[in-house]
Amino acid sequence: MQSQRDESISIALERLALTLGESGAVPVAELVRALERAAERLRTKSVADENPIDLVTQADASRAVGVSRQAVNQWVRNGVVRSYAGSGTSGRYGPMVSLAEIAIAANRRTRDVPFSNRRRRELVDFLGLIARSTAAPVAAEILRALEDDSYESRTPEKTRVLGEFVTASMGLGDQQREFTPEGLRLLSQLEPAITVDTDSPFGGFTDSLGLLIHSSGGEAGFDSPSTALLSMFGCATVGALYSGADAGIGRDIADAAQEVWGEDWVERLLDAVFHLGELRRSPLTRFTASLTYLDNNRFLRNAQAAGVSIAYSRGPGPLLPHRLYGGPIFRDMMSDAGRRTTPWGFSPASAQVGRPAELESGLNPFRVMNYEFGLLDPHVHGIRRYCFSTTDARRDLRAYVESLHGSERERYIGYAVDGLARTLHQQNIELAAIDSEQDFDWWKDHIIRSSEQEILLGLRDERARKVAHALLVSTSLLPEVVSAAHTDGALRDRLRIYVKNLEFDVIDARYRDDLRRGASRVIKGGGVAFDEAKATEVATTEIQAMLA
Question: Whole-model pTM?
Fold first, then answer.
């Protein structure tokens, strides 16, 4: 009798799902994904009630995050954040709350306003000034994308490229690859949405800065309007510091930005890049190393909607000074040349280290933007979970320290402690470490950063890196990858499993599972505030342990 009842429940649930899909009440692709996630959670028991690791009283949360006690209380009452019965909680303090969840709720109240008419007009004015320079063709294309609501960058080829990436990753162990041969061919043949003549002054200059994507057909340029605008920001900052007549292009762009936005031109130009990216989304965008580091500001602002982003790193800049600042700035720091007035500034002597296209990615001078206007920028809201490989960081740290002598070694270690302490001092950063090499698996090695809306996949294979350093994938593209295999049922089922590895909720579940299993450890929780003394103490302990 009991088995018949269980069967009837199962049939009823099945009919409900079919009705929802067939009636169009829920899109079929979304329904399938939701059912798969539910099944996965039931199998793994990932929905079990587990208290977060950062439980505090509501009063402590309001003080740490900087909001009123009444606001926190209302969020709990209205269900905006959950409350928890922490161990030993007394009635005097009431239910506990997660500090990270309170920080997310607070930040949601200060999200960016839509692209206002005033901001649009300022961008149009800026592009108008650029139209007088050698960058005129690119400025015209950005303007067309801004004003043409029918502008479209979604192509079937982009779906196929991501599908080939996922298909190649289906292997086990050493058989996992980034791309099939067909995938590499498709990746290299993708034509940029905005083409640039590399023989032109602007094209040659941006190419030397490592800002252009190249296709096997000989075309060069950008895969989206926002990366084209971002390249102008790169020219106006790092690019303007180099010698040579072409560097004047960067200074002219900076002058145009200052004419429109005044002293706030850096923040306003980054603001324009963010809003243009929101307005004209690209489902798949190829990034050079320079663009990867420049885009962190836009990415984190884009992640604010959900309040959380997750990043994995093998060579963490917050612990390795030469990777935090890039080659030219770090050379100045080690040679007593002193820091420039701008975060990206370096001396003419250090400019001789080379232009970004000539340097390996770890020495790229745009790396400082990744942190100054991204991870460590307190004005970008949301909890940032940054997880690094201790094994790789220790290896790199020791190798660099052993290459130095005397005072240079002491100086480098001091910079390492300072960089890590500054990171720990940021309240919205959650810093975690994976101490065992085998726990930093294939997928973590490729996820540079991830949010609910998009994921940045780092490419490691040298053949793929000749085309792109990373792929920025909009999560809206993921269902299309599965649907594209409609002619092959077995492949579609396998794709569905592997595409899940790119969904934020699965990445988030794995991140939390690593913490629960002890595969990773939290050095500082998200939303937790370390004062300078505590941050320095923890940073010193971590760096010394890695050098021991």
Answer: 0.82
